[in-house]
Amino acid sequence: MESENPKKLQKIVGEVIACNTPKTIQVKASIFKVHSKYKKRYLVTKKYVAHDEKGQCKVGDKVEIVASKSYSRTKHFIVSKVI
């Protein structure tokens, strides 16, 4: 049976912090979370490794990455667009 809703892909917007190796970038994504008991907001930062097929990203660019097949042990995202 086919499902009515297409599968949602995980999209993350972040800033490129490194592009040392060819076709690979590191993206820093930050989000605010709220503590369940104390209701204080705090910043959570995470680094992702993404595949950049065209090699168009530079350090400091804002990019949107999308979950995809594994390209290596740590690379599970692909660059969808440069913002």
TrEMBL record:
The keyword Cell division does not apply. The gene is rpsQ. One of its GO terms (molecular function) is structural constituent of ribosome. It holds the Pfam family Ribosomal_S17. PANTHER family: 40S RIBOSOMAL PROTEIN S11 FAMILY MEMBER, SMALL RIBOSOMAL SUBUNIT PROTEIN US17M. CDD domains: Ribosomal_uS17. One of its GO terms (cellular component) is ribonucleoprotein complex. The keyword tRNA processing does not apply. One of its GO terms (biological process) is translation. The lineage of its organism: Bacteria, Candidatus Doudnaibacteriota. This is 30S ribosomal protein S17. Belongs to the universal ribosomal protein uS17 family.
